[in-house]
């Protein structure tokens, strides 16, 4: 069983490697982040469950450090304030958990990362609508199909798989590449 899972993970990464269009969209997402940070903007991240953990991980790579000791970048995962999250879920419904914070935090030129393996998470879709209204560049990280989210965003980074763990592994690989490139372009080698 472990050998099968490792081979499946390698196969997804091989498909990513061979997908020039996907890698071009990753570069566009990196370009958007670099432009936003240079203009004093920020990167916001949202996702549910494992995608929330991935969102928080990638935000920390940007706000803390990746390879280089350098100034922090304004990057935040929108689920980390549990009081806000639970209050909004209680008062308005969980579908509004990210959209309300997007409305409060997002400004034109910011980049909003929307992580959803299916591309159909209602609260992530609502955040996309709020982010578009705020003037953000919307970057979705999904599985192969992109779901409803794929039609709403500026840049779709859709990992070529329908298997949730393989999709999440792909998100982390591509997210780490983005973080490394952003850091290198902003702060040098």
UniProtKB/TrEMBL annotation:
Substrate binds at residues 48-50, 61, 90-91, 116-118, 121, 168. The keyword Metal-binding applies. It is found in: Cytoplasm. Its main location: cytoplasm. It comes from the Bacteria. It catalyses: 2 D-sedoheptulose 7-phosphate = D-glycero-alpha-D-manno-heptose 7-phosphate + D-glycero-beta-D-manno-heptose 7-phosphate. CDD domains: SIS_GmhA. Zn(2+) binds at residues 57, 61, 168, 176. Pfam families: SIS_2. GO terms for cellular component: cytoplasm. Keywords: Carbohydrate metabolism, Cytoplasm, Isomerase, Metal-binding, Zinc. The keyword GTP-binding does not apply. Pathway: Carbohydrate biosynthesis; D-glycero-D-manno-heptose 7-phosphate biosynthesis; D-glycero-alpha-D-manno-heptose 7-phosphate and D-glycero-beta-D-manno-heptose 7-phosphate from sedoheptulose 7-phosphate: step 1/1. GO terms for molecular function: carbohydrate derivative binding; D-sedoheptulose 7-phosphate isomerase activity; zinc ion binding. Binds 1 zinc ion per subunit. Its EC number is 5.3.1.28. It is an enzyme of class 5 (isomerase). SUPFAM superfamilies: SIS domain. Belongs to the SIS family. GmhA subfamily. PANTHER family: DNAA INITIATOR-ASSOCIATING PROTEIN DIAA, SEDOHEPTULOSE 7-PHOSPHATE ISOMERASE / DNAA INITIATOR-ASSOCIATING FACTOR FOR REPLICATION INITIATION. Catalyzes the isomerization of sedoheptulose 7-phosphate in D-glycero-D-manno-heptose 7-phosphate. The reaction produces a racemic mixture of D-glycero-alpha-D-manno-heptose 7-phosphate and D-glycero-beta-D-manno-heptose 7-phosphate. This is Phosphoheptose isomerase. It comes from Neolewinella aquimaris. The lineage of its organism: Bacteria, Pseudomonadati, Bacteroidota, Saprospiria, Saprospirales. The gene is gmhA.
